Amino acid sequence: xxxxxxxxxxxxxxxxxxxxxxxxxxxxxxxxxxxxxxxxxxxxxxxxxxxxxxxxxxxxxxxxxxxxxxxxxxxxxxxxxxxxxxxxxxxxxxxxxxxxxxxxxxxxxxxxxxxxxxxxxxxxxxxxxxxxxxxxxxxxxxxxxxxxxxxxxxxxxxxxxxxxxxxxxxxxxxxxxxxxxxxxxxxxxxxxxxxxxxxxxxxxxxxxxxxxxxxxxxxxxxxxxxxxxxxxxxxxxxxxxxxxxxxxxxxxxxxxxxxxxxxxxxxxxxxxxxxxxxxxxxxxxxxxxxxxxxxxxxxxxxxxxxxxxxxxxxxxxxxxxxxxxxxxxxxxxxxxxxxxxxxxxxxxxxxxxxxxxxxxxxxxxxxxxxxxxxxxxxxxxxxxxxxxxxxxxxxxxxxxxxxxxxxxxxxxxxxxxxxxxxxxxxxxxxxxxxxxxxxxxxxxxxxxxxxxxxxxxxxxxxxxxxxxxxxxxxxxxxxxxxxxxxxxxxxxxxxxxxxxxxxxxxxxxxxxxxxxxxxxxxxxxxxxxxxxxxxxxxxxxxxxxxxxxxxxxxxxxxxxxxxxxxxxxxxxxxxxxxxxxxxxxx
Length: 586
Prior knowledge:
Helix content is 41%, strand content 13%. It is an alpha/beta fold.
């Protein structure tokens, strides 16, 4: 194989950046960067054309010159090191394999890519815009940088080339087969999907469906203790994903854990909407979903109050439902637990790149009067938030190297997408994310009544994940200021390690990761997230026992576990996990 002359390659590479005119295309690129790919602009156009002008932005010439000089200095040093036989330092895990260091040209390619990426992000940061516009610009530049990685292409990936040689081309054939299979699916395979089946080895905690309507099925789980707390627990998962993230395999099932702690547990299993439900609104999910579930549980158990649990948007629905009931003069919650939930949308994390008036208006134009937001589009959007982990990693492994993805229950669940009714989705985007009305007392009317989160009268447990990019932990902490405003000691906040999902699904039995808690009370109770974290204590292991303790403290007396599920008015109709969770969006 004829290899290019490294010295000629380097000379051409360095000369193009020492010429000031060569930087002009980069500047042009910054003003025509592709917008967020999952949410195209109106009219089918997707570039951020005129971004700098429309945002009233500018670029400091002196700063750009400094970036250029720094780049040239580092590029020159890189080439000198290569000529002296010194292997470039590659700290990025994408280039951790020995093959990248074993070939000088590959090492140089990876190092120069990382240097270019550093320079491009510095240029993005040099643009003088507001925080929201800067976040969008950085996101777009990062998307392009990640896509340009030499690890993503067979011609520049020495690991994939070595695999092809060792397998005599079989890896390439298998990779093409994997790619064609995924093209038929319309998504990248992230897990061995033949390894799991809902109800067999995920979502298989024993129980019965005791109620259903067109929106959800209600599962009552079989007790595993002789006695249970009299106050039942009602779990409301996100409708954007299926409930069994809370009931994966037995060893990491949060459902199984709370059942074993002596609770009578009910789960809302949302229906995966089809065209017949494309008219449903946020009010329907609150009235016919969360409120209906609470009413049925009260009738089955004979208890006026229940522990109310909400995860992610399920927590937003749960809190909204309790605010509606408070406006109607009812307080059915013995406690409220919110996991990685937004009530104050001031800081919506990286999802803010998809939320502005133009993009929300486009969705409303297409979906507000009816229609479905496809689960596949939602999955693509969430994957774009972590493209190296959820997109390019699988391009490299599945397609370039011809490997099969391993069996991973969490990623199997992640690929099991759900649709959303268009009117519900659009109302949620505008009123929550864009206009942030939920936190304002009386600003929203839901199910016919103005709502106020501060009117909910119940002890509150709020959980945030330290590395959550969807619900920043500081945004989860903001719920502490909205709930029980006259009785802040009724609120408890716990911070877990890791991200939006992995932080939540952290089984107590495995004793992994850590969490932070702060038990200061009275006048010394921290009022801000920064003050809270500064005086919080870190504890090794899972946060689950902290939550179990909270539930027990508010769970009332104990009595014999019910011998059968449901009641005469709500008899069991089918075993858990039920039919609704089996319906796939694709």
